[in-house]
Amino acid sequence: MLREARVAALEAARPVDPRVIERELSTLWKQAAEPLDDWPDDEQPPIVRAAMLNLVAVAESEAAATAATDAVRVLLERHPMRAVVLQMRPDVAHEGVEAMVQAHCHLPTWSRSYICGEQISLVVQGREAVRHVRGNLLPLLITDLPTVLWWPGAPFAHPLVGRLAELSDQFVVDSTSFPDLVAGLSGLLAIVDQPGLQVDCRDLSWARITPWRSLIAQFFDSPNARPVLDAINYVTITYRADGGDTPRLAQPLLVAAWLASRQGWALDSSRNGQAVERRGERLLLHLRGQAHAVTVDLRPDDERAVAPGSVVSVRLQVRGSEPRAEFSVACLDDPAFVLTLAQQGGRQPVPRVTKLSSADAAHLLSAELDLPRHDSTLIGALRVAVPFAEAIAGHTTTGA
Amino acid sequence: MLNVTAANPLRAGLRMERTPEPCVMVIFGASGDLTQRKLIPALYNLANERLLPGGFSVVGFARREWDNEQFRSKLHDATSTFSRSKPLAPEVWQSFADGLFFQHGDYDNPDSYAALKKRLDWIDRERGTNGNRVYYLATPPDAYATIANQLGRAGLTNNASEGGSGWTRIIVEKPFGRDLESAHELNQQLQQSFAEHEIYRIDHYLGKETVQNILVFRFANGIFEPIWNRQYVDHVQITVGETVGVEGRGGYYERSGVIRDMVQNHMLQLLTLVGMEPPTSFDADTVRDEKVKVLRALRPIAPDDVDAFTVRGQYGAGAIAGETVPGYREEEGVDPHSNTETFAAFKFFVDSWRWAGVPFYLRSGKRLPKRITEIAVQFREAPHLLFRDSGQQPEANLLVMKIQPDEGISLRFSSKVPGAGSSIRPVTMDFRYGNSFGVASPEAYERLLLDCMLGDSTLFTRNDEVEAQWSLITPIIEGWHASAPPPFANYEAGVWGPRAAHEFIAQDGRSWRRL
């Protein structure tokens, strides 16, 4: 019990003088390493301080800071790190910085040691302090470790986004939360294209569709099915509607943009600006590949119990010519699982049920941190998604 | 590891370059422990991680009179117990179980194979597996040749289905032969029905992440390779220690001993990974070519030399972790006068420019104090004693790759003790997988089964590799048989082998690591 009490003490957030954060952290870990009186040596709580990266999580509110702290706790189970949860409040009259430190520990099932990382929470108040936030942040980054800037919400509405991105090796956003999808995706591409800035950009909405991409790609791993991919001419992407006027299109649009970027489909310019067609709630994107026209049909769905904007099903079809083929991935009633079906050459499809990965931000970010640096497939999809989003914006008010 | 350009454009940027084509895995010996404890749980985990293709199917082949439902029920219970993804997701299990079938049959009965063929043709039609088949021999080794032969005679080794181009692979479990002659004979028997590139000899050690990391450590880091040679390395120690005894497998162990159970396969694999030259690419044959070169460069130990280069031991009664345990000769299924070795130590030399004169000490045994597998590379001492007032020669650097448990790598170097004077003490830099990567490694079988389905044989043993292993080991076994064994039991359970093992290395002015 004493072990648990010691870990709990480590995990309790404590206010510290922002000028001596490193010293406070050092004290924290020294205390953790001190042997417990009256305990035999082999029963001392083994506590390992570990860090593989710096994570700077920008929180736009107190609630967001709490959510970021919860996410850091989850992330640390897979990625030992130093996390800085940063709140910027330029509108507060009093200039200054408040800081708290705490540890997060977990006991892996395969380990005898608690593995602990640390979190520094910074609240930077006042216009000047916010303007100079980098001076508060930089000394807190552990030397030689990669720095990940995670900015959920609306980063491109903030004047400091570029400067903070410059500090990082990886910049992670979530396009589902962009209030303006065109501006958000364009902003992300601008970071990618900024000369001299070598930041690896990531999007958690892209991470949400990664299991979908994987399952769709799997249909065409078989040499027998591979040629059919080039004949696909109708794609239906169903997504969870949110009931508002501004459909959350980031995820379905990224699926469409991914397929288009890989297959060389572009908006059909021969339609004189009518490449996007609205049919009731549906949006049809008319595309042209090298050999044939392709329609992408974006359909809202009100039934599945998933977060607004989430993809509910994807169906790829060869329509109107023989041999017909259809490949689909669709959420079951329990949206943690999907059913895949491949129908080709008159053979009855073999249903397969498999599991989707967790779609919460912490798990998605954790999975993204496992991936190799620089996702050129995402960048390719973004370059297609921006004109798609612009064309759709001409037909509807487009939220993320 | 197979360098295949992804023909599927949708694969770009995804974690897997590709997933297997739809296929059927036929498991011979499907009612046995291996199937229930390892194979099916591994396949379920792959299904759970979306790594198996739609239509993937398993046919269990065994003598039992089970039907499909009984087979599925048994496997459900086993997977619930042994899978690392617990509890099972009912939706995923049901979908996976729809592809599980049982085929009753005898290994030597042609009618059984005719029935198997019929069932496989049906699966190809109904589940779209296109004639793609993996045969897994999870049977006693004396059935391997019979099964391979019967598969060939039944036309089950050439599976191009109607209009398709199916492939065939066969996975063979250890032990692969008992000596060079039997291994060679088995290779020939398998090759009558299968081409060498279709034969996957499994050594589950190669499926372990930490074993694969030996190559990454050596060849993805520029600083180690320049010192990985006789100029800087004094010697190498490889230890595989087990705390367990024969665990009810006395009959098997009596025929194998530690040399066949551990040394011929796992330990020589570790040695080759440490000793090999950098391959020019990471494809299966290039990597295995380099491993075979090391085996061929290993100086043979002639039967007359076994006393100079090897030590044998057998445990007697003792205690491990507070528990009294019986001696080997008291174990169930063991001859009370058995001379089977449960411990062995070896000194090998790799006669190459890189390793000339560097001894590789290997030791492995049962009922040792700790379950541990590690490779220790002991570097030479600093050439000149600069810090004379420290009163001692600094300890030489030591690099340890810990395969299990506490997987990781540590480097020992000397450091000044704070304070006046130049007192020097060794300190250790430690890397622990568990601390840096907060994720449990997948089971070795998951990786190996997936690799086989993908046609990547890098982590499997090639015929020339296995024969080179036996070429080295067979004369040692012959030498042991020709000479009188030491007075067994010669070490008590719970210690690091017989005294002779310590004297063996001490005569070279070295000592085993204290583990």
Highlighted features:
heterodimer, A: 400 residues, alpha/beta, nine-stranded mixed beta sheet, 12 helices, 18 strands, globular, B: 515 residues, eight-stranded mixed beta sheet, disordered N terminus
Please explain how this structure is put together.
- The complex is a heterodimer of chains A (400) and B (515).
- Chain A is 32% helix and 28% strand.
- Chain A has 400 residues and is an alpha/beta fold.
- In chain A, the strands form 2 sheets. In chain A, strands 1, 2, 3, 4, 5, 6, 7, 8 and 9 form a 9-stranded mixed β-sheet that branches. In chain A, strands 10, 11, 12, 13, 14, 15, 16, 17 and 18 form a 9-stranded mixed β-sheet that branches.
- The mean pLDDT of chain A is 88.
- With 515 residues, chain B is α/β, with parallel strands linked by helices.
- Chain B has helices at residues 33-48, 68-82, 90-97, 110-127, 144-153, 180-193, 209-219, 250-275, 284-297, 306-309, 433-436, 444-454, 463-482, 499-506, and strands spanning 24-28, 57-62, 100-104, 133-137, 168-172, 199-201, 233-241, 310-313, 315-316, 318-320, 323-325, 343-349, 359-365, 372-379, 398-404, 408-416, 424-432, 491-492.
- In chain B, strands 8-12-13-7-14-15-16-17 form an 8-stranded mixed β-sheet, with helices on both faces.
- In chain B, helix 1 packs across helix 12, helix 8 crosses helix 9 and helix 8 crosses helix 13 (463-482).
- Chain B is globular and about 80 Å long.
- Classes of the chains: A alpha/beta (400), B alpha/beta (515).
- At the A-B interface, helix 8, helix 10, strand 17, strand 18 and helix 12 of A face helix 3, helix 4 and helix 11 of B.
